[in-house]
Design brief:
By secondary structure, this protein is of the alpha+beta class. It is built from three helices and six strands, in the order E-H-H-E-E-E-E-H-E. A four-stranded antiparallel beta sheet has the order 2-5-1-6. Strands 3-4 form a two-stranded antiparallel ribbon. It is flat, with a radius of gyration of 16 Å. The two termini are 14 Å apart.
Length: 115
């Protein structure tokens, strides 16, 4: 089954990391990426900060756009991995190894498969 692992972190706190901390995080993600390749990772991407986001709605036939994310939250969506896992237990095992899990959170969502 495919699972989407959504990475949430505090953008403000992350922006305050030192160059050494950022380098260590980068290395941790490289190591994590090498491991997930063996597990059937389909894709994984980091996202630009929320101040680059645009939210789109259509109401009464009119397209409305808003700068920024839909909701103000303590943690922001910063990236994701799409993995093929045998079950939720394996998805949890993988999520627990994502470097951001130590100061953020990982949301796991099963992907709905259509025939």
């Amino acid at each position: 089954m495919r699972y989407l692992l959504l990475i949430y972190q505090d953008e403000v706190g992350h922006a305050q990391l030192s160059q050494e901390e950022l380098a260590a995080e980068y290395e941790a993600y490289n190591a994590f990426g090498a491991e997930t390749e063996k597990r059937g990772v389909e894709s994984g991407f980091a996202l630009m900060p929320t101040n680059t986001a645009t939210t789109v709605r259509v109401r009464d036939g009119k397209t409305l756009t808003t700068d920024g994310p839909f909701a103000e939250t303590k943690e922001q969506l910063g990236g994701f991995y799409l993995l093929n896992c045998k079950d939720l237990d394996e998805a949890i095992e993988v999520a627990a190894k994502i470097p951001a899990v130590t100061d953020g959170s990982i949301e796991i969502r099963p992907v709905m498969e259509f025939e």
